[in-house]
Design goal:
about 350 residues, Rhomboid-like fold, 2 domains, seven-stranded antiparallel β-sheet
Length: about 350
Amino acid sequence: MSQKLCPQCPSESLTVTPYRQEAVDVCRRCAGMWFEESEINRVISEVDNGEDNADISNSLSQQRSKTLLRCPDCNIKLKRAKLLDNFDLELDACPSCDGVWIGNDEIEKVEHSPRLRQALSEINQKVSVKSWLFQTLVRFPVEYNIKPHRVPIVTWSLVVLNTLFFWAYFGSYSDTEWVFAHFASRPADLAQGNEWWTLLSATFLHGDILHLLGNMYFLLLIGDNLEDVLGRWRYLGIYLVCGIGAGIISTVANWNSEIMSVGASGAIAALFAMYLVWFRFASLSFMFIIYQKKLSPVWYFAIWLVIDNLLAMLLDGQGVDYWAHLGGFAVGLAFGLGLKEWVYQTNPVVRILAQNSVKVNR
Ligand SMILES: [Zn+2]
Ligand SMILES: [Zn+2]
């Protein structure tokens, strides 16, 4: 049998090399890999990517452009084809034998392509009459992001706990007063070193139903994806630490104030920050009067930070613990940046989507 030649490197022959369960022809100079059609289909099927019967020749786009590279098996010219819509990944495939030439930096994207295809269709959904009606009536944003693979048990439990606690006291004025007296955080007490537990307990209390609904909606919207990439216990730990961190910053900013503070807002503001660092390819819909537009998390939360917090604090400043929001956001940003590499290492699809190869339609 004659030597197979690298399509890219002049007169460099390919070496048979084990890759996953297959024997693949690899170039020792450029590290490119030549897969026969059945080999690449088996490799994609072996990876845990939601696809067990991959057929790459069906996925490659029909519009193919010519290249100068030649098939190592047939010696005819390969053709370039896009593997996914809205994704910058082109492969050189042989029109005759359906073999595929894959660069060393592309193989991971190819292996995850079934999940990427699913993710891209979720990310690139357009705003619709349905989403417009929802946001007009309910006033909350619609999210466009990958669907989590883990059932978000911790997020749901946090929502249930917050709701149950609220349910337990909000009907009675005296109950509310008693609960807040013992479990809301008061900077004047905390400054004396008293009632330190209120830093935690206050994050599970809400002042009124709209406060609760708003926080729980965002917790469900944002929390499921964060729980998915962090893992349940890590997510829960970070949520609680961020809630406490927001409470500490608010206590310092309102030193010796007698005004009580409650709410999950600080912890949830921290989730916002992590979300915008890790899921820059996601979108949240924003309503400009009656015009609904998908915004990147950076823009969405920048507007939230400036209009809902900084401006609101300057203009009004009463009734909302803005320092808990800002403090929570700052703590979340520290976690977001500190854990970014780890999150991307452990979640390859999130990492691939966060690279520049994705075209997000907003
Ligand atoms: Zn080569
Ligand atoms: Zn061929």
